[in-house]
Amino acid sequence: MVLDHPWCQVRQDEIELPNGKIIDDYFVNIKPEVALILPITTNQEIVFVRQYRHAVGDFFIELPAGGFNPHQESAEVAAVRELAEETGYITQQVRKIATLYDKPSKDTNQIHLFLAENVVKVKEQQLDITEEIEVILIPVDAVLTKIAQGEIAVAGTVAALFLGLNFLKASNC
Amino acid sequence: MVLDHPWCQVRQDEIELPNGKIIDDYFVNIKPEVALILPITTNQEIVFVRQYRHAVGDFFIELPAGGFNPHQESAEVAAVRELAEETGYITQQVRKIATLYDKPSKDTNQIHLFLAENVVKVKEQQLDITEEIEVILIPVDAVLTKIAQGEIAVAGTVAALFLGLNFLKASNC
């Protein structure tokens, strides 16, 4: 471990390539697993969160998501919890529709993607002191245009939207 | 800078939240910009690369991509170069179709996505000693099935495929 802080863990590995060469400076970012949820209301609107992202220094519209420790809760529980905390919406039914990866060369985590239909707002957000999150509803029919215009641009969210909407289209056929 | 190695740079920032609270341990991964290219042959096949990704410890099918320094080359030049180096295919025409983000909360980089039609194989791969890359052709019509089956699962590649195929569909209407 070359960096071992609660918010950032970096490991330096020594690895042997298939050709036998040894590399002693392969850096791996040890990341928490990520639960990502695509919540759709009974009015066919998708529930997004908009917040400032410091590394890039701009505001982004993303699906609700958060890190979790698989030894403490399941991906499904984490997805439902993040939805409730970040937006105040709850869901009676979630379905896992995909496992994605952010950057499998450098980051250890998977992204566990869930679809939640008929979500309902029942309470206020419960945010950490470090979070300031705006909830935005966008009609399902308008989402592809927002992506094409670059207003929704985080790869995990974009992949999740296409996957989820394709999954729903296939289910309804 | 808490970690400053050619292959891994981490910065520890002190930031002020909108509520005035100061946090002195916000870690940012300083990453090179990424050029990502969706190459389509005249036979309507997409050119993928398959390689071992050490952080997750498995093989992944992804679009050709690579990091670049914007002070040394443009995103477009980097995309065309990565395609040639990783696959041996070249292209006469690339179009930028989107700017995406991996993880804007933690990683500084953008992903510059290009579409290249009518790519042609003219030479062998030119790989670094650390790279071992298999070139895989998948028909355009088969890609959505591969994504739904989880065989293509890296978020940036999945987002790029949906964006690129939607872009082509819109251009042909």
Topology:
The structure is a homodimer of 173-residue chains.
Chain A: E1 3-5, E2 8-16, E3 22-30, E4 33-41, E5 45-53, E6 58-62, E7 65-68, H1 75-87, E8 89-90, E9 94-101, E10 110-121, E11 134-139, H2 143-148, H3 155-171
Parallel strand pairs in A: 4-10
Antiparallel strand pairs in A: 1-2, 2-3, 4-7, 5-6, 5-11, 8-10, 9-10
Descriptive notes:
Two copies of one chain form a homodimer. Chain A is an alpha+beta fold and 173 residues long. The first copy, chain A, has three helices and eleven strands, in the order βββββββαββββαα. Chain A has helices spanning 75-87, 143-148, 155-171, and strands spanning 3-5, 8-16, 22-30, 33-41, 45-53, 58-62, 65-68, 89-90, 94-101, 110-121, 134-139. The longest helix of chain A has 17 residues, at 155-171. Chains A and B meet through β2, β3, β9, α2 and α3 of A and β2, β3, β9, α2 and α3 of B.
Give me a quick take on this structure.
The structure is a homodimer of 173-residue chains. With 173 residues, the first copy, chain A, is an alpha+beta fold. The first copy, chain A, has helices at 75-87, 143-148, 155-171, and strands at residues 3-5, 8-16, 22-30, 33-41, 45-53, 58-62, 65-68, 89-90, 94-101, 110-121, 134-139.
